[in-house]
Hints:
By secondary structure, this protein is α/β, with parallel strands linked by helices. Helices cover 39% and strands 17% of the residues. The strands form two sheets. Strands 1-2-10-7-8-9 form a six-stranded mixed beta sheet. It has a four-stranded parallel beta sheet with strand order 5-4-3-6. The site of pyridoxal-5'-phosphate (PLP) has 21 residues, from helix 2, helix 3, strand 7 and helix 8.
Amino acid sequence: MVFFSESSQMLIPSTIPIQSLDHPLLASKNIELAIMRLDLVHPGVSGNKFFKLKYNLEQARKVGKDTLLTFGGAYSNHIFATAEAAKAEGFQSIGIIRGERTDPLNPTLFHAESLGMKLHFVDRKTYRIKTESNFINQLKDLFGDFYLIPEGGTNELAIKGTREIIGENESQFSHFAVSIGTGGTFAGLAASISSTQKLIGFSSLKGEFIHLEIEKLLSNHQIFSEGNYQVNSEYHFGGYGKYTQELVEFIREFYENFGIALDPIYTGKMAFGIWDLIKKDVFEPQSKILMIHTGGLQGNIGFAERTGIKLPGS
Ligand SMILES: *Cc1c(COP(=O)(O)O)cnc(C)c1O
């Protein structure tokens, strides 16, 4: 399958690698656990962001826009991926970044800017009103016309993309696990699972609001899952971007056991959650669980800089 355009050299492998994990805990519980390596789909546009951007870039081209504009925090995987995709596909890009410009820039923003993304910093108060039309109009006055991609990249076309992550090839699995930020990836998976399958989304944010948020997202996009889905809000580790020593140790052990790097914002929390639920016998014997590795490893470099903690992949 061709990624963004016929002329593009960016090819998506026709099958995304799924790796089976081997561990005494899994054997003792009679559980099969595997991981789908979306982190390998593209070196820059990693993980779920690849699927979320795919049809948006196609649409931007179709409507004749040559500039992409989007929003994000200072370490955002979405900003990084949008800068990469824009560069590869010949779009200009603008990133509206929450907070003040630092000198030097952190590794995420440094990379985005070096790819040609124009960075525009706004204070937290302004950032909160970023979806209001007068703010968008101000941005149009500043930058001219653009194709707008929302924060985190979730919109109708993004979900069209994330619906393609799993399908017929994954019919042998009984359970899927994915991390939730805005829920766009979860929504696409919920739309794809069959009546005998179950999806568990692990919220990376603190709070029970996420349950309602996901219901709203699914209903706004007219997604009626055939399968069984569930949002777990127990493994946020203090909130978005927060972490504990236990999480850090889990990510290191996971790498030692399986040679797979995880990030502490999303995939580390999801994998911790699944591992913990397996330990607690939440899954019936003979369950076949597929974790979705949504990428995000670029953030480990910034995480090391921010916290002094070096994780695999940084
Ligand atoms: C953005 C991101 C998520 C969250 O995806 P949503 O579709 O916003 O829920 C999960 N994992 C990683 C690694 C991400 O970069």
